[in-house]
Amino acid sequence: MALRELPSVFSRLTVRGSRSTTVAAARNCRRYASSQATSTTPDLAADLQDLESQSSFTASEYPEEKIKAYDPVKRAQGRKRQLPPSRFQYRPPRYYRGPLHPHQPPPASDPSSRVFVPGPFSHTRLEQTYQSTIAPDLMTLTYVHKPPGTETTPKADRLRTWDDSSPYHKGRPKRGPRGPGEVLRIVEKDINWRNIPKIKEVTVHTMIKGATEDSAHLHVGGIMIQAVTGVRPTVHRAKHSVAQFGIRKNTPISLTSTLRGDQAYEFVDKCINLVFPKIKDWSGVKGTTGDGAGNISFGFDREGAILFPEVEVNYDMYPPKMIPGFHVTVKTTATSDRQARLLLTALGVPFYGKLVD
């Protein structure tokens, strides 16, 4: 209705002849168009009564005297107390005090978090291949279709129950499994888009026998492990004395380096494409390796350790008889050795022999 009345309003304004009056009236017309519509049509009063007469985007007229009289410095000096810092910035709590505490730290992906790490800005070559090719292929190859309405067969309890032959059996937790160790193995879960197996971390460990007689063997092994992995190794000391091997208590005898993230993928990529092809008469990784929880191990002897590019380029720096071999354990998020071998085979690790699930 307001748009229909605009021509008649402007015609009345032009008859009066004053340009300033015309502009002022036009402003009033635009500002109070909704009120004029409600006055001419009482039926729309209920529909337009919630509308504001002025837009929030238009600047409100403020007296010029108040603008000139405003002094922020004088206002700050007249304040009797300082404003709390939380009014301007937010810092998460320093310590995590449980899920029920009213102050919860933000997630690590939030830039305001204390543990926020920007990135990743780029992926390594092997990880990029995993993200673009291997992960979709694994999910496609291991897909198990279950039609709607399929009834899952109930499985027996993994823990044994008590026979209630004694009154003390009541309320007790279930008994452990039969067999040595009495340790429950991880149940293999079907692969879906949420739990596609991937490399979690890589552990490089070496046991240096010569360190019991000469500590120089330990120094050479530590330099080599740090050069190969890029991580400073941790020194482990003997907890007990073993007379048969000449090991005394608290003697440093082994080194361990743990790689995570991009470093883990780079190390596996280096083993697959640079070291494995150079090993002579090497069949591959044994198919029976694995701990039943998705972790695969393989090793390099002294001849295999010197094939790494970091050692090969500075081979004269290492005494040949002091270069140790080392074990590599690739820890994955898989729930079985079968899924872990499937992942490493897709990455390029060769397996031989009988494959044990």
From TrEMBL:
<dbReference type="GO" id="GO:0005840">
    <property type="term" value="C:ribosome"/>
</dbReference>
<feature type="domain" description="Large ribosomal subunit protein uL5 C-terminal">
    <location>
        <begin position="252"/>
        <end position="351"/>
    </location>
</feature>
<feature type="compositionally biased region" description="Basic and acidic residues">
    <location>
        <begin position="154"/>
        <end position="167"/>
    </location>
</feature>
<keyword id="KW-0689">Ribosomal protein</keyword>
<feature type="region of interest" description="Disordered">
    <location>
        <begin position="74"/>
        <end position="113"/>
    </location>
</feature>
<dbReference type="GO" id="GO:0003735">
    <property type="term" value="F:structural constituent of ribosome"/>
</dbReference>
<dbReference type="GO" id="GO:1990904">
    <property type="term" value="C:ribonucleoprotein complex"/>
</dbReference>
<comment type="similarity">
    <text>Belongs to the universal ribosomal protein uL5 family.</text>
</comment>
<dbReference type="GO" id="GO:0006412">
    <property type="term" value="P:translation"/>
</dbReference>
<feature type="region of interest" description="Disordered">
    <location>
        <begin position="145"/>
        <end position="181"/>
    </location>
</feature>
<dbReference type="Pfam" id="PF00673">
    <property type="entry name" value="Ribosomal_L5_C"/>
</dbReference>
<dbReference type="Pfam" id="PF00281">
    <property type="entry name" value="Ribosomal_L5"/>
</dbReference>
<dbReference type="InterPro" id="IPR031309">
    <property type="entry name" value="Ribosomal_uL5_C"/>
</dbReference>
<feature type="domain" description="Large ribosomal subunit protein uL5 N-terminal">
    <location>
        <begin position="195"/>
        <end position="248"/>
    </location>
</feature>
<keyword id="KW-0687">Ribonucleoprotein</keyword>
<protein>
    <recommendedName>
        <fullName>Large ribosomal subunit protein uL5m</fullName>
    </recommendedName>
</protein>
<dbReference type="InterPro" id="IPR022803">
    <property type="entry name" value="Ribosomal_uL5_dom_sf"/>
</dbReference>
<dbReference type="InterPro" id="IPR002132">
    <property type="entry name" value="Ribosomal_uL5"/>
</dbReference>
<dbReference type="InterPro" id="IPR031310">
    <property type="entry name" value="Ribosomal_uL5_N"/>
</dbReference>
